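tool=predict chain=A
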Amino acid sequence: MDVDAYSYAQRGAWDRLDYLAGRRKLTGAEADELVALYRRTSQQLARLQSHSPDPELMAGLSALLTKARGRVLGTNTDAWHEVGRFFTHRFPATLYRSWPWWVAVAAVFIMVSTGLAVWISGSGTARDVFGVTGDNDWLTAPGGEFETYYSEHPHDAFAAQVWTNNAWVTAMVLFTGVLILPAVYLLFGNALNMALTGGLMADAGRLDAFFGFILPHGTLELTAVFVAGGVGLKLGWTLIDPGRSSRLAAVARQGRATATVALGLVAVLLVCGLLEGFVTPSALPVPVKIGIGFVAEALFLGYVFVVGRRAALEQDARATAELGLPGADVAEGWQTTPSTR
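tool=predict ok
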């Protein structure tokens, strides 16, 4: 079987099933069509499962069948349940499936930023290249702009400002990834800004202060940027190399994954904003503040590689379990009048 051609040929029926499953009210003919499409799609999933399946295609069809099954059996969807399921299944599973991309972005970002910081710290030529000349005490001295940035505004207002700014930067990196070069440019700009500040602080002998102010919130904040960059670049690469799927289907699928990450990162960046607004400028000992930042990062990584891995495996298992649906479950669906509420 040519999986790409088969998926392309069935795309219209799958879109129709998605449309009917999402309608609030159905006519009798539409209810019959919903059940027929549900049964047919279940059988198609069984065929695809045995012909070099694409895990993301399987997960997408499984999610569609789960949505349609609830409609066929007349179940109601609890909004809060869906929100909870988003953060316990969809978001962490998407993060887990894309981890090689954002870990690679993190590695390149850290290497570039560290290399530039070392160059700026030990070379006047580097400062000339980047237009940083003269006395920089206004930035690096105790009580300078680097330190006062975190305490010159009320904590709650500063946290909200940081959240908004970080969300904007992350969204730009995430959604310009489809064009690749703009996302790379934005990531390099962030790496350069980090390198300039770190290099100048190191040259002033205040690297301890630099890490003391950056690490409490910056560890998780930068990870969010790396995730956005990795997922965005994956979307751009999917446009170039769609794999076994058609280009349209592959980009649409990855686009949905990108939107899932965008929604989930709003919550992650809220945590970053709270850390930067209330922990970084606090009077807590520096080791305690850094420890809080590391704990937040460890919790996020655990969320990805424990919760996300489990959710991804459950999605794969559900796709396999759908193979049994054309039997008892679908037969039950034929005997059940779809809800028209």
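The first helix runs from residue 3 to 22. The chain is about 80% helix and 0% strand.
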